[in-house]
Structures are given as structure tokens and as C-alpha cells.
Amino acid sequence: MAVCLALIASFSRALAQHPETITVSGLKASVDVLRDTWGINHIYAGNQRDLFFAQGYCAARDCLFQFEIWRRQANGTVAEILGHRGGRNSYTVNSTGPLDNQPIGASFRMIADLSDWDLTVMTNTPGQSGDPKSRYYSNLFEKWAKDQYFPAYFSSEKIRANTTERQILVPAGE
User: Which candidate, 83, 31, 70, places its Cα nearest to that of 54?
Assistant: First the structure.
């Protein structure tokens, strides 16, 4: 088991060292997106517009399925893709309860250490991604179920030390 975990960690660091470059229309300058061990995106941009653009890009990449469910909840068409659920249209994405809605436990909690932000911890269920095909879709469920937390990194040093994936978004035409 330890050997397997070491191989996974080594492979993840290799991915971070060889970033994926993606050309995106709408950016003014390149943006660096680092994803840590827990699936949290850390975005480095040279201006506020590109920062928020990249945040939207990451949200769409990670949660497009979830956004589609919410859109369909709003207009009453969830059953078209998920089937009829007992006459209701209240399906909760990432529900951990026996019914349509998550009945217990905080789905997200953060305990911030204001003296050292890198000691901040979080919990989120079932994971950071709303995409059922993502490895970050349910990666945090076990910790959440045991009422455990994972570290939330804020310093560049900690983020880079725990980066498993890196994407560089470059403006089209650059």
C-alpha cells in the first residue's frame, strides 16, 4: 500500500512539473492554475479580470454537470436526464442522504487559523468537483463521513509543494 501511495504521489508531482497548456479566448494574459492534493484550484493571474475569468473556467471544468442539474431544477426539467423521482423535482447534487436532500452534516466547513493561514482546515462532501467522472468528485467523502478535515493551503510555498496538476491558460493569439 505504501509503495502504491508513493507511486501515485510521484506521478502527481510529475504532472505538476509538466503543465498542460490550454489556449483560451477572452484572456488578456497567461494564467497559472494549480490544483492541490485535495482538488482545490489555486489561480495565479496578473489582473483581476483574468483571475475571475479563470475562476469561471475552473468552475465550468469541474462543475458543468452540477450547473446543468441546477439549471434544470430551476426550470423543472431534471426528470428529462435523471428520470422521474417520485413525482418531485428536488434532486440534490452530491446528496449523501437516503432521500433527495442531504439531511445531516455540514456539506462545507472551514476552520481558519488567522495566525497561520496554512494551518486552516476544511471539510467538503463528497469532493471538490461536481463532475461524476472526475477523481475529485468523491475524494473527500470518507473524511467527511468520519468528521475529519483536510488542510487548506494559502501560502505559495505550501500550494506548490502540494500541487498535483498544473494548467497554463494562454490567451488565443499569444
Answer: 31
Residue 155 scores a pLDDT above 80:
yes
Pairing of strands 150-151, 121-124: antiparallel
The pLDDT of residue 133:
83
* Per-domain residue ranges of the chain: 17-94+105-171
Which fold is adopted by the domain 17-94+105-171? Penicillin Amidohydrolase; domain 1 (1.10.439)
Residues contacting 93, CB < 8 A, separation 6+: 65, 66, 69, 70, 130
pTM: 0.71
Asked if 174 contacts 28 with a C-beta cutoff of 8 angstroms, the reply is no
Interior angle at CA 17, CA 133 and CA 63, nearest 5: 25
Predicted local confidence at residue 62, as pLDDT: 87
State which of 61-75, 78-92, 141-155 shows the largest mean pLDDT: 141-155
Q: How many helices (H) and strands (E) does the chain have?
A: 5, 7
Cis preceding-peptide flag for 151 (omega within 30 of 0)? no
